[in-house]
Amino acid sequence: MLNPLYHLAANAIVFFRKGFAPIFGADSFFAWAFSVVLLVIAVRVLIFPLFVKQVKSQRTMQMMQPRIKEIREKYGHDKPRMQQEIMALQKEHGNPLLGCLPIVLQIPLFISLFHVFTHLAPMNEGPNGSLVWRPRVGLSAEQVEQIASAKVFGISLASEFGSDSDFVHFLGVNSTHVKILAVVLIVLMGLTTFMTQRQIMARTGPVDPQQAIVQKVLLYGSPLMLAVFGFRFPIAVLLYWLTTNLWSMGQQFFVIKRMPPVRPLPA
Protein backbone atom coordinates (compact mmCIF):
# COMPACT_ATOMS: atom_id res chain seq x y z
CA MET A 1 0.00 0.00 0.00
CA LEU A 2 2.87 2.36 0.77
CA ASN A 3 4.92 1.38 -2.29
CA PRO A 4 4.09 4.63 -4.15
CA LEU A 5 5.47 6.60 -1.19
CA TYR A 6 8.61 4.45 -1.08
CA HIS A 7 9.17 5.17 -4.76
CA LEU A 8 8.46 8.88 -4.28
CA ALA A 9 11.00 9.20 -1.44
CA ALA A 10 13.63 7.23 -3.37
CA ASN A 11 13.11 9.21 -6.58
CA ALA A 12 13.23 12.53 -4.70
CA ILE A 13 16.59 11.63 -3.14
CA VAL A 14 17.98 10.56 -6.53
CA PHE A 15 16.68 13.79 -8.10
CA PHE A 16 18.29 16.01 -5.45
CA ARG A 17 21.53 14.03 -5.66
CA LYS A 18 21.85 15.06 -9.32
CA GLY A 19 22.07 18.67 -8.18
CA PHE A 20 24.83 17.93 -5.67
CA ALA A 21 26.76 15.53 -7.93
CA PRO A 22 28.68 18.30 -9.80
CA ILE A 23 29.79 19.74 -6.45
CA PHE A 24 30.69 16.64 -4.44
CA GLY A 25 30.83 13.92 -7.10
CA ALA A 26 28.11 11.48 -8.18
CA ASP A 27 29.23 8.75 -5.76
CA SER A 28 30.00 11.06 -2.83
CA PHE A 29 28.61 10.43 0.65
CA PHE A 30 27.91 14.17 0.96
CA ALA A 31 25.91 14.26 -2.29
CA TRP A 32 23.51 11.65 -0.89
CA ALA A 33 23.55 13.10 2.66
CA PHE A 34 22.66 16.61 1.49
CA SER A 35 19.94 15.08 -0.68
CA VAL A 36 18.32 13.74 2.49
CA VAL A 37 18.64 17.18 4.13
CA LEU A 38 17.15 18.87 1.06
CA LEU A 39 14.25 16.39 1.09
CA VAL A 40 13.45 17.49 4.65
CA ILE A 41 13.59 21.17 3.67
CA ALA A 42 11.40 20.63 0.59
CA VAL A 43 8.73 18.81 2.60
CA ARG A 44 8.76 21.35 5.44
CA VAL A 45 8.45 24.25 2.99
CA LEU A 46 5.47 22.54 1.34
CA ILE A 47 3.64 22.04 4.64
CA PHE A 48 4.61 25.44 6.07
CA PRO A 49 1.07 26.86 5.62
CA LEU A 50 -0.23 23.93 7.68
CA PHE A 51 2.35 24.67 10.36
CA VAL A 52 1.06 28.25 10.62
CA LYS A 53 -2.46 26.84 11.02
CA GLN A 54 -1.10 24.48 13.68
CA VAL A 55 0.36 27.39 15.67
CA LYS A 56 -2.87 29.37 15.35
CA SER A 57 -4.88 26.33 16.45
CA GLN A 58 -2.69 25.86 19.52
CA ARG A 59 -2.92 29.54 20.37
CA THR A 60 -6.71 29.31 20.07
CA MET A 61 -6.68 26.38 22.48
CA GLN A 62 -4.62 28.48 24.87
CA MET A 63 -7.11 31.34 24.57
CA MET A 64 -9.98 28.94 25.29
CA GLN A 65 -8.48 27.53 28.49
CA PRO A 66 -10.18 30.04 30.87
CA ARG A 67 -13.55 29.37 29.20
CA ILE A 68 -13.02 25.61 29.34
CA LYS A 69 -12.14 25.90 33.02
CA GLU A 70 -15.39 27.79 33.63
CA ILE A 71 -17.37 25.11 31.80
CA ARG A 72 -15.72 22.34 33.84
CA GLU A 73 -16.53 24.14 37.08
CA LYS A 74 -20.11 24.87 36.03
CA TYR A 75 -21.01 21.46 34.58
CA GLY A 76 -18.58 19.21 36.46
CA HIS A 77 -21.54 17.25 37.88
CA ASP A 78 -23.01 16.72 34.39
CA LYS A 79 -20.35 15.11 32.18
CA PRO A 80 -22.42 14.86 28.95
CA ARG A 81 -23.41 18.54 29.19
CA MET A 82 -19.83 19.54 29.97
CA GLN A 83 -18.51 17.70 26.89
CA GLN A 84 -21.28 19.21 24.78
CA GLU A 85 -20.39 22.74 25.88
CA ILE A 86 -16.66 22.20 25.31
CA MET A 87 -17.30 20.77 21.83
CA ALA A 88 -19.55 23.72 21.01
CA LEU A 89 -16.80 26.12 22.11
CA GLN A 90 -14.21 24.30 20.00
CA LYS A 91 -16.54 24.26 17.01
CA GLU A 92 -17.06 28.01 17.34
CA HIS A 93 -13.35 28.85 17.50
CA GLY A 94 -11.80 26.11 15.37
CA ASN A 95 -10.97 22.43 15.61
CA PRO A 96 -7.82 21.91 17.76
CA LEU A 97 -7.13 18.62 15.95
CA LEU A 98 -5.96 20.65 12.93
CA GLY A 99 -2.78 21.28 14.90
CA CYS A 100 -1.80 17.64 14.45
CA LEU A 101 -1.80 17.76 10.63
CA PRO A 102 1.89 18.69 10.05
CA ILE A 103 3.02 15.83 12.32
CA VAL A 104 0.62 13.33 10.75
CA LEU A 105 1.69 14.27 7.21
CA GLN A 106 5.37 13.70 8.02
CA ILE A 107 4.83 10.16 9.34
CA PRO A 108 4.47 8.53 5.87
CA LEU A 109 7.66 10.25 4.70
CA PHE A 110 9.58 9.01 7.74
CA ILE A 111 8.31 5.45 7.16
CA SER A 112 9.22 5.69 3.46
CA LEU A 113 12.74 6.94 4.15
CA PHE A 114 13.23 4.29 6.83
CA HIS A 115 12.06 1.62 4.38
CA VAL A 116 14.34 2.84 1.59
CA PHE A 117 17.50 2.95 3.70
CA THR A 118 16.86 -0.33 5.52
CA HIS A 119 16.50 -2.18 2.22
CA LEU A 120 19.87 -1.29 0.71
CA ALA A 121 21.72 -4.38 1.86
CA PRO A 122 22.97 -6.72 -0.90
CA MET A 123 21.24 -10.06 -1.41
CA ASN A 124 22.63 -13.61 -1.49
CA GLU A 125 21.61 -14.27 -5.08
CA GLY A 126 24.90 -14.30 -6.91
CA PRO A 127 26.94 -17.30 -8.09
CA ASN A 128 27.80 -19.67 -5.23
CA GLY A 129 25.65 -17.63 -2.85
CA SER A 130 27.75 -14.49 -3.28
CA LEU A 131 26.31 -11.08 -2.42
CA VAL A 132 24.92 -9.06 -5.33
CA TRP A 133 23.01 -5.80 -5.63
CA ARG A 134 19.33 -5.88 -6.57
CA PRO A 135 16.87 -3.11 -7.53
CA ARG A 136 14.86 -1.87 -4.54
CA VAL A 137 11.85 0.43 -4.02
CA GLY A 138 12.27 2.66 -7.05
CA LEU A 139 16.07 2.43 -7.16
CA SER A 140 18.08 0.60 -9.77
CA ALA A 141 20.70 -1.92 -8.65
CA GLU A 142 23.37 0.64 -9.57
CA GLN A 143 21.74 3.37 -7.46
CA VAL A 144 21.35 1.00 -4.52
CA GLU A 145 25.06 0.21 -4.71
CA GLN A 146 25.98 3.91 -5.07
CA ILE A 147 24.03 4.94 -1.97
CA ALA A 148 25.19 2.06 0.21
CA SER A 149 28.80 2.25 -1.00
CA ALA A 150 29.18 6.03 -0.62
CA LYS A 151 31.22 6.47 2.55
CA VAL A 152 33.05 9.10 4.57
CA PHE A 153 35.48 7.95 7.27
CA GLY A 154 34.21 4.43 6.62
CA ILE A 155 30.58 5.38 7.30
CA SER A 156 27.72 4.55 4.92
CA LEU A 157 24.32 6.24 5.03
CA ALA A 158 22.75 2.77 4.98
CA SER A 159 24.74 1.54 7.99
CA GLU A 160 23.41 1.60 11.55
CA PHE A 161 24.73 1.08 15.07
CA GLY A 162 24.11 -2.67 14.92
CA SER A 163 24.77 -3.32 11.23
CA ASP A 164 25.03 -6.97 10.23
CA SER A 165 28.63 -8.23 10.06
CA ASP A 166 28.18 -9.44 6.45
CA PHE A 167 27.00 -5.98 5.44
CA VAL A 168 29.92 -4.34 7.25
CA HIS A 169 32.53 -6.56 5.61
CA PHE A 170 30.95 -6.41 2.15
CA LEU A 171 30.96 -2.60 2.06
CA GLY A 172 34.18 -2.12 3.97
CA VAL A 173 32.35 -0.06 6.60
CA ASN A 174 34.26 0.96 9.72
CA SER A 175 31.88 -0.30 12.42
CA THR A 176 33.60 1.75 15.16
CA HIS A 177 33.15 5.00 13.24
CA VAL A 178 29.55 4.07 12.45
CA LYS A 179 28.81 3.47 16.14
CA ILE A 180 30.43 6.77 17.16
CA LEU A 181 28.48 8.80 14.58
CA ALA A 182 25.25 6.94 15.37
CA VAL A 183 25.58 7.71 19.10
CA VAL A 184 26.34 11.39 18.38
CA LEU A 185 23.31 11.68 16.08
CA ILE A 186 21.07 9.81 18.54
CA VAL A 187 22.10 12.14 21.40
CA LEU A 188 21.54 15.22 19.23
CA MET A 189 18.23 13.81 18.00
CA GLY A 190 17.04 13.22 21.56
CA LEU A 191 18.26 16.63 22.74
CA THR A 192 16.60 18.53 19.89
CA THR A 193 13.38 16.53 20.38
CA PHE A 194 13.38 17.58 24.05
CA MET A 195 14.03 21.22 23.17
CA THR A 196 11.33 21.21 20.48
CA GLN A 197 8.81 19.79 22.95
CA ARG A 198 9.82 22.45 25.50
CA GLN A 199 9.13 25.10 22.86
CA ILE A 200 5.66 23.64 22.29
CA MET A 201 4.91 23.62 26.02
CA ALA A 202 6.12 27.20 26.42
CA ARG A 203 3.88 28.48 23.64
CA THR A 204 0.87 26.46 24.79
CA GLY A 205 0.85 28.10 28.21
CA PRO A 206 -1.21 26.89 31.20
CA VAL A 207 -3.24 23.73 30.53
CA ASP A 208 -5.56 21.51 32.54
CA PRO A 209 -4.04 18.74 34.73
CA GLN A 210 -4.67 15.95 32.21
CA GLN A 211 -2.98 17.85 29.38
CA ALA A 212 -0.09 18.72 31.69
CA ILE A 213 0.51 15.01 32.33
CA VAL A 214 0.45 14.27 28.59
CA GLN A 215 2.90 17.11 27.95
CA LYS A 216 5.33 15.80 30.57
CA VAL A 217 5.13 12.28 29.16
CA LEU A 218 5.92 13.63 25.68
CA LEU A 219 8.67 15.91 27.01
CA TYR A 220 10.64 13.11 28.64
CA GLY A 221 9.21 10.05 26.90
CA SER A 222 9.72 11.10 23.27
CA PRO A 223 13.52 11.64 23.50
CA LEU A 224 13.91 8.41 25.47
CA MET A 225 11.87 6.41 22.97
CA LEU A 226 13.79 7.87 20.03
CA ALA A 227 17.09 7.11 21.76
CA VAL A 228 16.08 3.46 22.17
CA PHE A 229 14.81 3.01 18.61
CA GLY A 230 17.58 5.19 17.18
CA PHE A 231 20.05 2.33 17.54
CA ARG A 232 18.06 0.53 14.83
CA PHE A 233 17.85 3.55 12.50
CA PRO A 234 20.23 3.86 9.51
CA ILE A 235 22.53 6.89 9.58
CA ALA A 236 20.40 8.50 6.83
CA VAL A 237 17.24 8.28 8.95
CA LEU A 238 19.04 9.73 12.00
CA LEU A 239 20.25 12.58 9.79
CA TYR A 240 16.69 13.09 8.50
CA TRP A 241 15.24 13.23 12.02
CA LEU A 242 17.92 15.61 13.33
CA THR A 243 17.41 17.94 10.36
CA THR A 244 13.64 17.86 10.94
CA ASN A 245 14.10 18.80 14.61
CA LEU A 246 16.47 21.65 13.81
CA TRP A 247 14.07 22.97 11.19
CA SER A 248 11.15 22.72 13.65
CA MET A 249 13.03 24.66 16.33
CA GLY A 250 13.96 27.47 13.95
CA GLN A 251 10.52 27.55 12.34
CA GLN A 252 8.69 27.71 15.66
CA PHE A 253 10.93 30.50 16.93
CA PHE A 254 10.50 32.50 13.71
CA VAL A 255 6.70 32.15 13.47
CA ILE A 256 5.79 32.51 17.15
CA LYS A 257 8.02 35.57 17.61
CA ARG A 258 6.00 37.40 14.95
CA MET A 259 2.59 36.63 16.42
CA PRO A 260 0.83 38.90 18.94
CA PRO A 261 0.54 37.84 22.60
CA VAL A 262 -2.21 35.36 23.44
CA ARG A 263 -5.23 36.89 25.17
CA PRO A 264 -8.06 34.88 26.78
CA LEU A 265 -11.40 34.76 24.96
CA PRO A 266 -13.99 37.22 26.29
CA ALA A 267 -16.55 35.66 28.59
Summing up helix and strand content along with how strands pair, one would put the structural category as: mainly alpha
State the major sheet.
2 strands, antiparallel
* Spatial strand order of the main sheet: 1-2
Mean residue pLDDT: 79
- Please give the count of helices: 10
Number of domains: 1
Q: If you compute it from the alpha carbons, what radius of gyration comes out, rounded to the nearest whole angstrom?
A: 23 Å
Order of helices and strands: HHHHHEEHEEHHHH
Distance between the termini: 49 Å
Helix residue percentage: over 70%
Pfam families: 60KD_IMP
Keywords: Cell membrane, Chaperone, Membrane, Protein transport, Transmembrane, Transmembrane helix, Transport
Membrane topology: Multi-pass membrane protein
Subunit structure: Interacts with the Sec translocase complex via SecD. Specifically interacts with transmembrane segments of nascent integral membrane proteins during membrane integration.
